[in-house]
Design goal:
Blueprint: H1 11-29, H2 31-43, H3 47-73, H4 77-96, H5 101-116, H6 120-130, H7 135-146, H8 149-164, H9 166-188, H10 215-219, H11 222-251, H12 256-280, H13 286-307, H14 311-339, H15 345-351, H16 353-370, H17 378-400
Helix pairs in contact: 1-7, 1-8, 1-9, 2-3, 3-5, 3-6, 3-15, 3-16, 4-5, 4-9, 6-7, 6-15, 7-12, 7-14, 8-9, 11-12, 11-14, 11-16, 11-17, 12-14, 13-14, 13-17
Length: 410
C-alpha cells in the first residue's frame, strides 16, 4: 500500500493556522504572566503557589502529546485542533470562576490539555503530513507569526485586565477562541490526508514498505533516540533561562537598564532569526543549517560566561541566544520528519512530549538550586553550556544515521 499523494502547498491554509497560533500563544501561554498577580491578590496565593498552576499546564500538555499525536496520524487533525480550542474556552471560563487554589490548578490543567491540541507540536505535525515537500517552509511561517504573539497579546491582555478586571478579561479571551479559533480550525482542516499504512496496526501489513512500519519501530532506532536527547536537553536549556534572566544579568554586574533591555530584546531577535531563515533557507544546505543553528545557544552562553558583566558580552549573548532560540523552534519541529520518519511524525513527536515537559518544568528549579551566594549563576550556566553541547552532538549523530530504510534524506 502506497502513502497518499502529497498535497500542494496551501499558503492560505498555513496563514489561517498561523493566526490560530498567534491567538493561542498570546492569550493563554503569555497571558498567564499578566493574570498571575491579580489572581494571587484575590485568592491569597503565594508566588510559588500560583506558579504551580503553569507547571501543571505544562505537564498536562506533555502527558497528552502522545495521544494527540496518534489521533493526528490517524487522520483526526480537524477534531483535535477544533476540540482543543473548545477545551481552551472551557478552561478560560473555569478560571474566571475560581475562588480557591484548587480551582485555579484545575483550570490550568484543563488549559494545558487544550494547549496540547492547539500549539506548535500538533500544527507542525499537520503541515508535515499535508505538505511533505514544503513542510519546513510552512513551519517557519507558523513560528514567524507565533513569535509575534507576545507583542500583540501582552498589551491587549493588560488593557483588558485594566478595563474589565481579570475575570471579565478571561470572558473576552474565551470568546476569541470560541468565535475565531474553533471555527477556523474546523474550516481549514477539512479533508485530512489518509492515515499512513501501519498507523493503526501494531505491525505493518504484508507487502508494506519499511517506510510505513509502525511508529514503535522508529522509537527503537538510533536517529529517534538521538533526536530525543537533542530535543529534551535544549528544551531544558531554553526553559531554564527566562525566569532567571533579569536576576542573572544583574548578578553578572550589568546595570539595571541593561538587565531589563537584554531579555526584552531577545524576542525581537528571535523573530528576526526566523525571518532570515524564511527568506534565505534555499541558499544554503539544509542539514548544515540544522547543525549550525543549535550551536548558537552554547555560543551565547559562552559569551555570557566569558564576558563577566561587560555590556558587549551581553549584546553577543542577545544575538547568539536570540537568533539560535528563534530558529531552534524550526529545527526541533522538523528533526523527526527529516531524520526519523514522516509517516508517523505526530506520534513520534508526541512520544517526546512528556519528557520535554518534565525538562521544561524542572530546568528553572535546577538553575535556582545551582545558584550560589558567592558565584551566582556561574555553575548553572556551565551545566547549561554542557547540556547544549551534548544536544548539538546528538543532532549531528542523528544526521549521520538518517539514511535508515524508508526514510528520505531531505
Amino acid at each position: 500500500m502506497n502513502p497518499p499523494a502529497p498535497t500542494l502547498y496551501n499558503r492560505r491554509m498555513v496563514g489561517w493556522l498561523s493566526l490560530g497560533q498567534l491567538i493561542t500563544w498570546g492569550s493563554v501561554f503569555y497571558g498567564f504572566a499578566l493574570l498571575m498577580e491579580p489572581v494571587e491578590r484575590e485568592l491569597g496565593l503565594s508566588r510559588a503557589q500560583s506558579s504551580l498552576a503553569f507547571s501543571l499546564a505544562l505537564l498536562a500538555e506533555g502527558a497528552l502529546a502522545w495521544p494527540v499525536g496518534r489521533w493526528i496520524d490517524r487522520g483526526h487533525e480537524r477534531a483535535v485542533m477544533t476540540g482543543g480550542s473548545l477545551v481552551i474556552v472551557a478552561g478560560l471560563l473555569l478560571q474566571s470562576m475560581v475562588h480557591s487554589a484548587l480551582g485555579f490548578y484545575a483550570a490550568w490543567t484543563l488549559l494545558g490539555a487544550g494547549l496540547a491540541a492547539t500549539l506548535y507540536s500538533p500544527a507542525f505535525s499537520i503541515v508535515t503530513r499535508r505538505f511533505p515537500h514544503d513542510f519546513r517552509r510552512a513551519i517557519i511561517t507558523l513560528t514567524f507569526l507565533g513569535g509575534l504573539a507576545s507583542t500583540v497579546f501582552i498589551p491587549l491582555v493588560a488593557w483588558l485586565i485594566a478595563e474589565l478586571g481579570w475575570r471579565h478579561a478571561l470572558w473576552v479571551l474565551a470568546a476569541i477562541h470560541l468565535f475565531i479559533c474553533a471555527p477556523l480550525h474546523a474550516r481549514v482542516l477539512r479533508h485530512a490526508p489518509a492515515p499512513a499504512a501501519g498507523s493503526k496496526a501494531g505491525r505493518p501489513r504484508a507487502g508494506e514498505a519499511a517506510a510505513v512500519a509502525p511508529a514503535s519501530h522508529y522509537m527503537r532506532t538510533a536517529p529517534f533516540l538521538l533526536v530525543g536527547v537533542f530535543t529534551v536537553l535544549l528544551m531544558a536549556v531554553t526553559a531554564a533561562l527566562p525566569p532567571h534572566m533579569v536576576s542573572l544579568l544583574r548578578g553578572a554586574g550589568l546595570s539595571e537598564s541593561w538587565a531589563i533591555a537584554v531579555p526584552a530584546s531577545i524576542g525581537l531577535v528571535q523573530v528576526l532569526g526566523r525571518a532570515l531563515l524564511y527568506f534565505f533557507e534555499h541558499h544554503f544546505d539544509l542539514h548544515l543549517a540544522n547543525r549550525l543553528i543549535p550551536c548558537l545557544i552554547p555560543l551565547g552562553l559562552l559569551a555570557l560566561l566569558a564576558g563577566a558583566g561587560h555590556p558587549g558580552a551581553a549584546l553577543l549573548f542577545v544575538f547568539f541566544y536570540g537568533m539560535g532560540n528563534g530558529m531552534l523552534t524550526i529545527v526541533k519541529g522538523t528533526a523527526i520528519a527529516q531524520y526519523v520518519n514522516r509517516d508517523h511524525v505526530a506520534t513520534l513527536n508526541g512520544a517526546l512530549g512528556l519528557p520535554s515537559a518534565i525538562a521544561r518544568a524542572l530546568a528553572p528549579l535546577m538553575l535556582g538550586v545551582l545558584w550560589q551566594p558567592g558565584t551566582g549563576y556561574t555553575l548553572g550556566l556551565w551545566v547549561l553550556l554542557a547540556a547544549s553541547v551534548i544536544a548539538v552532538l546528538a543532532l549531528v549523530g542523528a544526521q549521520r544515521w538518517r539514511r535508515v530504510p524508508g526514510t528520505p534524506a531531505t
